[in-house]
Amino acid sequence: MGRRCCQRSRRYVSVSHYRNPVNVVEGLVNRQEFFIELADVLLDAHQKCSLEKMHLYRIIISFVSLFTREITKNVFIARKFLYIIGLRLKGYMDESEKKKKVRQQPKQIFSELIACNNHRLIVLTSFGIITSIIIDCPEACIWMPLDESQVPMYLVGSPLDILPIDPLLFPTFLNEKESMEFTKTLKKLLASKLKQIHTRSCKIDNRWALNCSRETDFHLIVRACVDVVSLLDTADLTKPRAIFDLYSKVFGFTKGNNEFFDGEIVIRVKAMLQWAITNEREGSFRALLVSKILQIYVRHFRSLNFDSRNFVQIIVDFLNRESPAPEKASFRKEYSNLILLLIELQRASLFSHDEYIMLLIKYDELKDGEPIIPKLQRLLEPLKEVESTNLSDENIGRTSNENQQLIRNFLTPATTIIQGNLADHEFCRLKDDIEDEIVFMEKPEGMGIHERLIIQLPIEQIEANRGAVNQRAIYLYGITNEREEVSKNLRNFSTNIINKWLEFCYIFHRKRKTVKTRKNMVGLDECFKDFKKLTYYDRLCVTGYCMDGYLQILKDFTSKSTSSFSLPIIEIFDMLLSMAEAAQCIGWTITFFLECFPLILSCEKILDSVRTDLPPGTFSSQQCFAIVGFLAEHYKYFLLSKEAIKICNALFRVIEPAIRAEDYPTTGWSKAVAAFLIQARFDLRIRGKGFFAFRARDCQKILPTHGTPIEYIQDFDDELFVSEDDLLNYQKRIYTFHDFKVFVQRLNSVEAEHSFVVNAFAMAKEFANDFSKLTELANFCGNVSAVKSLESHWLNVIEALCTPHGSKRIRIPGFDKIDNSMDFFQHYTYSTFITLLATRFCFSVHSLFVRFNNDFFKAPRKLF
């Protein structure tokens, strides 16, 4: 009993950690795990409540309503919440009948509950969530003929079956006098959705029994698909031989041979492919995981055939039936996932571009005599004429209301409640995510599935693939000079990017200490915008050329052949990694890192020997910081890659002087790399192949401590910081090493260190929402904190900022300079700055969460 209570308490606390809806919406936490945990908490609260004790359930259902929009994006999660909420409404009916000992109409019972202050919020919130699921995710309501002994209860039948009241009655509980028209519209919309659900449920019922020659086979197909998806969703890949165990279970080899049905292996393969590209799951690792599982199957049976069907045939059939469609809302994201999947299948030698083309010709999907690009250009010509006509009409009809319309376009499309002009007190306007203008994606409408894929699918530019590259060019452009022109243009575009990079490099002179760099970054931004308009194939080509150019810049630096030489700044490397990510070449980029590390170490050794005042370790730690940022974005992919331990050891060798050498300067970038290595070593300790060249406690030496409360005296230096001109207009990322050491010596007391932290927030307040300036400020603060260990001061000030009604801010000198309790416009600025400080490990994020947990979540925990 005590253990169950402890587990329940931990569950409530874990949910309370993520009470901020923004964290879930923006993907700062794992959405699927969060919503499953939240649904279990809601079910637990339902099972313990009665008509007299609804306080806890009311809190949780109100919290659930904040995520209605996110819940409706996932069929299984929406179905689970719909089932649990239906149980609560049914519980109301049962408890009412038991109490009054008479059967009443559902509408009468719920009208009485809505009139009660204790139950009004629960009932109306439940009605609202159910209505949203029916309208936005009708798939979650469709009837499923599954056996309750094999699957969870919410997957059996339809969740609507458990509702004690017809959803069409929900609009009648609104105030009809004030919203008559809205009630009618909502009722009409609900009726159409319920009719659609009923029709689809009937079709599933018929198809379930008549789809196969044997009436019992179809439920086995669905069970196999559910089995594959559930296994992939819950796979724990940190255990030894985990991927081999997953392989056995995914293909059903753990069950008896007599339980297999015809074509089951192909069904399971297609379910894996769909799991890898669907927008209802997250993570680039899915493509790599699926390719590894399929690769194990091929090695196991020594054949590329699955149930006597060639793998490329399965891919073509999958594309014909399950390929992302342009009219689908998540088309761009799912197509990007499809490209990544096919790249990984090519890298695993499972998918052959040449075999794919031959199969299309065999199926008459591709014709030899008609090149694809000229055909599509003819289809695009009428569209261009229509667009130019519409554009001219818009220019003629433009009015003085242009600014209001522009602001309206910046709003999220789903926010249909806000209409008309925005209020004058609106603090922050967030733009929609701008989709890449990739050519030949949605348009023209007559473009086929395979035509689009031949245009977009990347092919690694190596000698072994020369035939496939030439074959692709012939089918796209024919036997014309245009093939060579396209290749030439891509090389010229790549050369222009590399030349731009050279303009933004650090420039070192052998006989002078001066380090110069250009400041205008507009050219790089424009190049990247043009890059995002290319096809995925062209992106891969340009990225490959630019990677070679980047390596050449580093090699030229180490050659010492000139009196002045250049090194790329961190923004250049970050741009290159963004290009690689946009091209979906994640695996090739990880291999590229292994080529970079020896050159980075060589460059750092030369910098130590050159007569320059650049702080030791600055260049190498910046490069590794960008690498770690990329690997953290694709962390599970990194853990699955065979180069993982090699990269960890190489990263450690770069930051090793900061850890082992005495008086070697530590930077905020080095601390971030050390923290990444600790986590990666822990996750790779069992399944990783190879030996680590470091121990976790080695990296722990330079990480921030947990911090301690500090009692300050009333002594605050308002001018203890650097000027904005010195911080932003200087020729390097930070001070020269000499000036930096002079400044650090000024932080010789607790009050001076505290003054530095407060003044840093004051400067962040001046920068407002200028992200580039905030980044420069965070870089400087990270390097100072790495030398002076200011984590206690950062934690105290941040905690005071986040407790506007607490007594802690009263005891902090100079806090009035940054107080923002009533200025909500500054919340975004401070939140951004604190996040940037956390990425430089100026303080322990874990310690900050512990303090927040103790300060903010005391009351909710007492309620639980």
Please give the structural blueprint:
Elements: H1 2-16, H2 21-25, H3 31-48, H4 55-65, H5 68-71, H6 75-100, H7 106-115, H8 117-136, H9 180-210, H10 218-233, H11 242-250, H12 264-277, H13 285-301, E1 305-306, E2 309-310, H14 311-322, H15 331-347, H16 353-362, H17 372-396, H18 402-410, H19 449-456, H20 466-477, H21 482-503, E3 505-509, E4 515-516, H22 522-531, H23 536-559, E5 564-568, H24 570-582, H25 586-609, H26 618-633, H27 635-640, H28 644-660, H29 668-684, H30 696-700, H31 724-728, H32 737-745, H33 750-767, H34 771-788, H35 791-801, H36 825-839, H37 845-856, H38 858-863
C-alpha Rg, in Å?
A: 30 Å
Question: What is the number of helices?
Answer: 38
Compute the number of structural domains.
Answer: 4
Strand order of the largest sheet: 4-3-5
Q: Which blocks of ≥5 consecutive residues have pLDDT under 50?
A: 1-6, 8-18, 207-215, 386-432, 730-734
For the termini, the CA-CA separation is: 16 Å
Helix content: 55-70%
Largest sheet descriptor: 3 strands, antiparallel
Keywords: Activator, Nucleus, Repressor, Transcription, Transcription regulation
Pfam families: Med12-LCEWAV
Subcellular location: Nucleus
Family: Belongs to the Mediator complex subunit 12 family.
Can you describe this structure in just a few lines?
With 864 residues, this protein is mostly helical. It is globular and about 90 Å long.
Describe this structure in words.
Residues 96-295, 311-381 form the Mediator complex subunit Med12 LCEWAV-domain domain. Belongs to the Mediator complex subunit 12 family. The protein has 864 residues and is mainly α. It has 4 domains: 2-210, no CATH class; 218-351; 472-663, no CATH class; 724-863, no CATH class. The chain has 38 helices and 5 strands. The strands form 2 sheets. A 3-stranded antiparallel sheet has the order 4-3-5. A hairpin with a 5-residue loop joins strand 3 and strand 4. The two termini are 16 Å apart.
